[in-house]
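COMPLEX REQUEST
Ligand: NAP
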Amino acid sequence: MNQEFMPKVALSSGEKIPCIGMGTFGSDRFAPKQVSQAVAGAIRCGYRMFDCAAIYGNEDLIGEVFDDAFKQSIVEREELFITSKVWNDMHGKGDVLFSCAKSLRDLRLDYIDLYFMHWPFPNYHAPGCDGDSRNPDSKPFSVDEFISTWRQMEKLVEMGLTRYIGMSNMTIPKLEAALPLCKILPAAIEMELHPAFQQKELFDYCIGKNIAPIGFCPIGSPTRPERDKSSDDVADIQMPEIVEIAKRHNVHPAIVCIKWAAQRGQIPIPFSVYENEYAQNLECVAKDPLSPEEMAIIGKADKNCRLIKGQVFLWEGAKSWEDLWDLDGVIAK
Ligand SMILES: NC(=O)c1ccc[n+]([C@@H]2O[C@H](COP(=O)([O-])OP(=O)(O)OC[C@H]3O[C@@H](n4cnc5c(N)ncnc54)[C@H](OP(=O)(O)O)[C@@H]3O)[C@@H](O)[C@H]2O)c1
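STATUS: Structure written out below.
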C-alpha cells in the first residue's frame, strides 16, 4: 500500500503516526515464528506500526524480521513506529531499564518509539495459568508504586532508549491520581476498544488530554484463549449492527470493526497471521469509509462488554475482576 494514502494520527508532539498498527500477541494459538513471518509480510504490505511486548515471547524473532527489512532496504528504521511494553514482574528499581534493554536487544533496535507500562501494577501470573489462579504477592494499585515505575520509564526517554512512553489498562481514577505526578506525560494509552466495548468516557478523557488512544482487541479478539472467555461475552463480529453494515459494504464484519475504530480516532492494532486478513485490515482504513449514519449506529451499539478482564491479576481479598477497573469511580483497595 502506498504510504501517501495511509491516514495518520497526530500525537501531542505534533508527530504523525499511522492510524493502524499490527498486533503481535500470538497467544496460545500461534508460534512465535508464525507471528514474526506475519510481521515480515505486513511490512511488505505497508504496515508501519507494530505493537510488541516482552511478554508476547516473540520479540527476538520479530527483531530478526526488522533487521532483515532494514538490510534489504524494504523499509528504513525511521519509517517504522515500534512499541514494546514492560511486563508486570519488571517494575522494581532498575528493572524497567533492564527490561527495555532486553527488548531493544531482542528487537535489534537502537531505540523504541513508544514504550508502555503494560499494566499499572506489578501483579503477574505464570504464563498459561488458568483464570482462577491468584498470585499471593499481588496487591491493589498504589499510585506511589506506579509513579516510582513511571520515573524509570521517564528515565528511558532521557536516555534516548525510547522516544515516547505510554500507559496501558488504565482507568480514569488511576489517571487522575497519576497524571499530575508525571514529569513526562504518556503520549498514548493502550486500552481495550471495540464496538461492544467502546469505553466512551475513557476515550473522551484521553482525547481531551491530547493522549492518543490505541485500541487493542479491535475485532473483539474472537480467538482469545478460553481462560479469557465468559458465557455472557458479546462477539463483535456477530453483532447484528456490524453484520448488517458489513453486508452493505461487502466486507467481513472484522473490517467494519477496524473502519469504525480508525474513523472514531483510536489507533486499532488488529492481529492476524493470515496475509489476506492483515492486508485487508490495513487497506480498509484508506477506502470506502463508513457513513456518519453507520458510525452513529455502531456508536449506539456499545454493550459495555470487557473481554480482557484481568482476573489473574487480582490480589487476595479482592471481590471480582471489576475491582481492577474502578467502576464506581474509586480506586479499589
Ligand atoms: N495492552 C494490552 O494489555 C493488550 C491486551 C490484548 C491485546 N493487545 C494487543 O492487541 C492486539 C490485538 O488484540 P487481539 O489479537 O487479542 O484481538 P483482535 O485483533 O481483536 O482479534 C484477532 C483475531 O481476529 C481475527 N481476524 C483478524 N483480522 C481478520 C479479518 N480481516 N477477517 C476475519 N477475522 C480476522 C483473527 O482470527 P483468526 O486467527 O481465526 O483468523 C485474529 O486471531 C494483540 O495482538 C496485542 O498486540 C494488547
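REMARKS: The radius of gyration is 19 Å. The chain has a mean pLDDT of 96.
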